[in-house]
Amino acid sequence: MILLPPILAGVLACSVATLDQETPGKPRLVNVDDEGVFVISLAGRPVGTERFKIHSSLGKIEAQGEIRLHIEQNGKAVGVQSFPELVLDPQLRPLTYTWNQKGSQSSRLEVDFRGKLTRARYKTISGDEDDRDFELPPDVVVLDDNVVHHYQLITARYQAMGGGKQTFRVFVPQEALPSLLTVEDMGIAASTIDGITANLRHLLITTEVTHIDLWVDDQQHIERVSVPATQLEAVRKR
Q1: 65 found inside a domain
Q2: Angle at the Cα of 115 (from 88 to 99), degrees rounded to 5?
Q3: CA 150-80-119 angle, 5° bins
Q4: Rounded mean pLDDT of 73-95?
Q5: CATH number (domain holding residue 42)
Q6: Three-state DSSP state, 200
Q7: Is residue 109 part of a domain?
């Protein structure tokens, strides 16, 4: 169940087959270890937090999160917890992904990228099973709805590929949606977060009909994510 406005729903409608053929090849290794808490706001009002940890060990990278949201849905206050866990190889290629939602409406999603076909298994809030297979490239980027630290992994992938302007194949598990997006470095600019102004690198993610702004410090850690079209913002807690 997607409580907040889907970050990419309906805006990544291009077929993977239309991906720019100039996409770079194998990424160089980068340090992706990071952990922290993002405060999530919708239309300027705090609606939850995301605690995350990205850790490299024994030839794999594990990215885990605990997301707590408290919003109004259909006139009622709704509180939900979700627990995404993404495992990648050292080249940032996805191996497995699980997403568990707990609360008044629980569901579970499992995705296995290791075979010739990517297999997605979704247990819906009604208890039904929805199983689907996808033909995805091995270097597809996972960017699930309302999982902020996935942008940190995109930033790491972008850095590993050498910067510039890059187009990535993308898979959005909760929407069962394969597509693409472009990342571009817009340079250093002053950004004010919690009343403190700092010079941060501005990365711009674009799709056909929208854009997402990332603000990154000199350690390549995301400090702020902004989705103007949905008024969704996530700021790293200090």
Answers
A1: yes
A2: 50
A3: 50
A4: 91
A5: 2.50.20
A6: strand
A7: yes
